[in-house]
Design a protein that fits this description.
With 279 residues, this protein is of the alpha+beta class. The protein folds into two domains: 6-169, Jelly Rolls, CATH 2.60.120; 179-277, Homeodomain-like (Arc Repressor Mutant, subunit A). It is 40% helix and 20% strand. It contains nine helices and nine strands. It has helices spanning 6-9, 112-131, 138-158, 183-191, 199-206, 210-221, 225-243, 248-254, 260-271; strands at 14-24, 31-34, 39-46, 49-53, 56-60, 65-68, 74-78, 84-94, 108-110. A five-stranded antiparallel sheet has the order 1-8-3-6-9. β4 (49-53) and β5 (56-60) form a beta hairpin. α2 runs antiparallel to α3, α5 (199-206) crosses α6 and α8 packs across α9 (260-271). The longest helix has 21 residues, at 138-158.
């Protein structure tokens, strides 16, 4: 599977769009057969929800969070006592890649014991937004809490504490952008930041023609290889400066810049301050 570190490295490019958020309380005769066009989260508050996806039965209990991929059909129902849950439709992407989460095994039921803290935070924010409809900041805070829920799911998966069980443990792939193919490219870039990194070198590492490499990379990651490399360099520059162990000239050399002036110019363009005043 692709390395989850991409979410940390490219956090500045991440965009989340909260499209709709409502609470529903269907009765015991409720059955829903549907597939959504976007990402979906259900935060179960009461009752049990039965789900059938790709021929497999799943059960969500109060406190659990259910994460659906786009365009995956499911059949949902609840017990005789009915159920209540908050559902959220949202988009989550990096740059122009608006379904980056689907490259990871995240679609499934996240148990309450793993996600209770951030799920409770979101539920509270939702209830407050309902009471304060239209007031400044309520929708923004709800979006921030949703970001925290997604970040927690990513963290749990990255630490091996959770793997989505929908689709029998697999995730949908698109033939025009497989993130797995680019893992050796990411490693090469990270290991060769002190050198000039050329597309003619990266393309063969991925097993892709140089002509097609840039468009493939952008479809998979959401940004170009040049933007990715620049971002990684600025991330490392920040880390080096925080350590307060290296001179600007040394850092310039670590990151493949020919001289401190060129590095300082690139750094200031990104952070709006020169390296000497970064804190």
């Amino acid at each position: 599977m692709p390395d989850m570190e991409i979410f940390n490295e490219l956090s500045e490019f991440i965009a989340l769009r909260l499209k709709s958020c409502w609470a529903i309380a269907p009765g015991g005769d409720w059955i829903e057969h549907k597939a959504h066009a976007d990402y979906d989260l259900w935060l179960i508050q009461s009752g049990t929800v039965k789900l059938r996806i790709a021929g497999t039965e799943h059960t969500a209990h109060p406190g659990d969070v259910v994460f659906f991929y786009p365009r995956i059909p499911y059949i949902a129902s609840c017990g005789e006592e009915g159920c209540r849950f908050i559902y959220v439709h949202f988009d989550y992407g990096i740059g122009e890649q608006q379904q980056i989460l689907s490259d990871f095994r995240l679609s499934g039921i996240i148990g309450a014991d793993l996600i209770r803290e951030v799920a409770d935070l979101f539920v509270k924010a939702f209830e407050q937004s309902e009471q304060r409809s239209g007031k400044p900041g309520s929708r923004l805070y709800l979006k921030a809490c949703l970001m925290a829920v997604i970040a927690k799911i990513i963290e749990l998966h990255g630490q091996g504490q959770y793997s989505g069980a929908f689709l029998n443990g697999t995730s949908p792939k698109r033939s025009d952008r497989d993130l797995d193919v680019l893992q050796p490219v990411f490693r090469y870039i990270d290991d060769h930041l002190h050198e000039s990194i050329k597309m003619s070198v990266l393309a063969p590492i991925a097993g892709i023609s140089e002509k097609y490499f840039i468009s493939y990379f952008k479809k998979a990651v959401g940004i170009t290889p040049g933007q990715y490399t620049y971002q990684i360099k600025m991330n490392r520059a920040r880390d080096y400066l925080y350590q307060k162990k290296y001179t600007v000239q040394q850092i310039a050399g670590f990151l493949g810049y020919p001289d401190p002036f060129t590095f300082s110019k690139a750094f200031k363009k990104y952070y709006n301050v020169p390296p000497s005043k970064f804190d």
